[in-house]
Design a protein that fits this description.
The protein has 228 residues and is of the alpha/beta class. The chain has 6 helices and 15 strands. The chain has helices at residues 39-45, 62-65, 78-87, 101-115, 162-169, 213-224; strands spanning 2-7, 24-28, 49-53, 70-75, 91-94, 119-123, 128-132, 136-142, 145-150, 155-158, 173-177, 180-183, 187-191, 196-199, 206-207.
Amino acid sequence: MFRLLSITAYPIKNQLGEDTVPLWEVVEVKPPDQPIELAHYLHHYNPQVFLVDLELDLIPVAETINNNVMWVGITNSYRKAYRALKDGFFDVLIKPLPIAAITTVLGEIRQKLLAQDKPITISCPKEIRYLRSGSIWYIKADNNYVIVHLNDGEQFTVFNSLSYFEEILRFPFVRIHKSYIVNAIHIYRIHYTKKFLKLKGCEQFIPYTTSYAHQLEVIHTLKGSNIM
């Protein structure tokens, strides 16, 4: 699922379409009583999309706005909207919001996130690897380290936890088993009886467990709608 962090004066979930809700983990935070830097929320919640009411007394940080988070603003001021777009916001919605406004912009962001082939830096015991996210098939946990499997058949070991990669890679990388994270972009087959899935070009049968079945429901929705 994609993660949306919202700091607005009113609930956002109520404005999302029925087809949008299952695809997004929406974290709604109560507006603070005093000014605070938005970087604080980014570090704590690690969202992919940050929806913020520009009328609130928050302090954006230039280097924060220019990172990998998609920023969306809400305001009734065209001046603030122009400034936010100039600072690097993906979009700014003008109040009062049309019913489908947030659903529409989240659809655009979802497409953009799925199309990204992001650069990834992975530190190994004796080297540093510079990869593109699309080159990763899956990551498998093995005792106190993980093995990263690439789509050219190469694999390498990293002394870190699967939870660490689950947090930094985010969707379309999904945890489907206590020992596996897969790149959902490469999935072309899910066997619900034998509980395994297949990745394009990969001979390995990747197991999944029912405790992570909700992740597969999201993948099925996206692929069934030709979104991914």
